Amino acid sequence: MESMNAVWLENRILKFRPVPIPEPLSGEALVRVRAAGICSTDLELVKGYYPFTGVLGHEFVGEIVRSPDQPDREGERVVGEINAACGCCRTCLAGRPRHCENRTVLGIVNRNGAFADYLCLPNKNLFPVPESIRDDAAVFVEPLAAALEIREQVNILPSDRVLVLGAGRLGQLIAQTLALTGCRLLVVARHEKQKKLLEAHQISWIEEKNIPAHRFDIIIEATGSAVGFDLARRAVRPAGTIVMKSTYKGEIRVDFSSIVVDEITLVGSRCGPFQPALRLLENGRIDPSGLIEKRYFFKDAAEALEHAAQSGILKIIFQTKG
């Protein structure tokens, strides 16, 4: 059996090691990874946020090298929806495949991920990338889709006062997508690099100490830490909405009585639509280029993830060729 190089996580220990090249199941394709991005979820998995053993990584752009069921797609440059659904459980039949009861999730739940030379995903999960979108931009499609999911879940009007908590990897993309709605947008930023990136897109920022209490209609919590919810709770107005984007190891304490009394709406938000994300990149309405901090090879994975975990660091990219 042929092997490939991969970033393997086991018992919270990272190893760069050879593993067998995956064999596509019925309806799947084998994809050669061209580039992959480190996400906060990857960092939390290393901390033990969720028990996972296997190849990390779920943000990628690649090329289909083998597709037994759809050979005409071989050679196609693609990005991939990370949730592989069974298609036959009650959740799938109800039209909610991302919440499939039997799903595997690329690099997160029972499916080896993108920090490797090759990966496998169902053909229906793979979306062709227009020629005009470079690999450096295509690798952002998955987190950009997650940012767009907010607009699928919450109706955001130009009159709404919206606060984004967190100006990191995901927060920057969220801010760019929300700016397209014309809402009264503010982003909480701590680091000069974050502030300059927001300013480059004509997005206003605010420091945490200056957040007014009970003023905002909608809060997007994307800090990646437990303190984010407390900040959101203080900033949201009565009958307002808090959208939760952070996943992390640990728990938070919540005064649910105050949530009930103030009639606060809590919205969990995870993955999102790929086609709109690709269109926004293709027409240049979203520009993620300024988010790339540094590039590494898979063999330097330990250093790369350590770098990505530092405060204020934006997107770290794995490239597969020199």
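[next item in queue]
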Amino acid sequence: MWVYSPPDIPWLVELHVDRDLFVLDKPSGLLSVPGRDPARHDSAFTRVQARFELARMVHRLDLDTSGVLVVALRRKAERHLRAQFQDRTVVKGYVARVAGHVQADHDEVDLPLSLEPGRPRSRVDLVAGKAARTLYHVLSRDPDGTTRLALEPLTGRSHQLRVHLLAIGHPILGDRFYAPEAVVLAAPRLCLHAASLSLDHPYSGVRMTFEARVPF
């Protein structure tokens, strides 16, 4: 049975902080928000909230995904940021390492997704699924038989990138939810990282881009 064990890391890696925003580089293995079980209380959000009492979460990353995570520090900032995510004006850039050599240098995966009943997993569902679109671009095809991809999700479905890459025959290395065992064991962690995020500052309106170094 898998037991949540948050990584032994410094408090948080700060990328940017002002009166409206706290932007961090979330490590793989740390929850974005606390779970219901008291043993799963430690999370990026609870750590930010311990320092900024009015902090509000506006989006999330999967437990095993690392990278840029934005937290609002005021209610007005929260409303503004949530609207940007809902209106899909936020641009997210990910990097992944996947099994096999992806043939097309760049392409779009357009496959609707739905949640599996009773399980925290998603699946391609051509009948009842919600629209899900992902752009990808090959960064390198490596000698070990893997490919490094730049990804841009145009929608924000649960596990979208993981399921889309699995669907085209290139599961992400270390993906314990979806990949075959050999691909899971090919990396010590999920090789998916939120490398950049661009949004409008909720107070000034200035377009800002935050970046976090790819750790794999």
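[queue empty]
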